[in-house]
Amino acid sequence: MKNVLTIAGRQFRSYFNGPVAYIVICIVMLTLGFFFWKTFFLFGRASAREMFRWLSLILVFALPALTMGLLAEEKRTGTIELLITMPVTEAQVILGKFLGVFGLYAVLLALTLPYPLSIATLGDLDWGPVWGGYLGLVLQGSAVLAIGLMASSWTNNQLIALFVALTLSVFFWVLDKFLPLLPTNAASALEWMSFDYHFQSMARGVLDLRDVLFFVSVAAVALAAAFRALESRRWS
Predict the structure, then answer these.
(1) Would you tell me which of 7, 74, 155, 196 could form a disulfide with 160, CB atoms 3.0–4.6 Å apart?
(2) 130 CB-near residues (< 8 Å, 6+ apart)
């Protein structure tokens, strides 16, 4: 566990030694602020529902930018060879990298807390859907971050990793938007695979174990794929 935390801490600190973290955080906060407050007063009620709807979509596009260099940059510079020859396992590297970027994601989510707090001063805010929304963001974000780490493990080019992670994340998010065009059986399957379908359920304050298991399963599969990609490098 010590090795995992060491790698996680190193990864977390590295974000603040460059511009990526600051750029992503600023873009997310400015975009969220613009779209949310632009329409908030039109609804005439104290609700954070729209905030979570916009934030869920924005993060699908923003988080791959945080993960694109997790392993791709290490491969490009050759430091991955040094890392995997140290007394750490591939699983520790993957988990440490994931926890490092998740730590930055947690900081980003914490910066959005003034939004519901501000809404609460304007009316009687129901905090149940707020905490459900944040739990949904934690789970959906974990899945997107894991997909990004997987994409970064497949290449040494950060732009390719960004494109692959972005494509997969957006694909899973928009699946349920095509349901009216499909037969009932196919529509049900695609709906179940949609990030937004599971997230919106939690943002309404409905905690269903199936939604939690879906996001956890996606993250676990993606991390396992990243582990296999890194393990194969040791023997290549």
Answers:
(1) 155
(2) 48, 116
Q: Which two tokens stand for residue 13?
A: 């600190």
Q: b vs e for 193-208, b when ≥16 Cβ sit within 10 Å of the residue's Cβ?
A: ebbbbbbbbbbeeeee
Distance CA 81, CA 79 (A): 5
- Three-state SS at 235: coil
Taking every pair of Cα atoms in the chain, the longest distance, rounded to a whole number of angstroms, is 61
**Residue 34 is encoded by which pair of tokens?**
């613009």
Q: Rounded to an integer, what distance in angstroms lies between the CA atom of residue 212 and that of residue 223?
A: 17
**Environment class of 184 (CB within 10 Å of its CB; exposed 0-12, middle 13-18, buried 19+):** exposed
Amino acid, single-letter form, for residue 31: T
For residues 56 and 32, what is the distance between their CA atoms, to the nearest angstrom?
Answer: 10
Per-residue pLDDT of 136-160, as tens digits, reads 999 999 999 999 999 998 988 899 9
Find out whether 28 and 62 touch, Cβ atoms under 8 Å. yes
- Within the chain, residue ranges assigned H as helices are 2-15, 20-43, 49-67, 72-77, 79-85, 90-110, 114-122, 127-153, 158-174, 184-193, 195-203, 209-234
Residue 228, exposed/middle/buried by CB under 10 A (0-12, 13-18, 19+)?
Answer: middle
